[in-house]
Amino acid sequence: MAVIAGSYYWSKPADQEHPYGHKRLETTVSILIGAILFAAGAIIGWEAISTISKRHAGGIGWIALVAAAISIVAKEGLFQWTRMVGRRINSVALTANAWHHRLDAFSSVPVLIAVGAMMFNPGWYLLDHAAAFLVAILIC
Question: N or C: which end of the chain has fewer CB within 10 A?
Answer without folding.
Answer: N
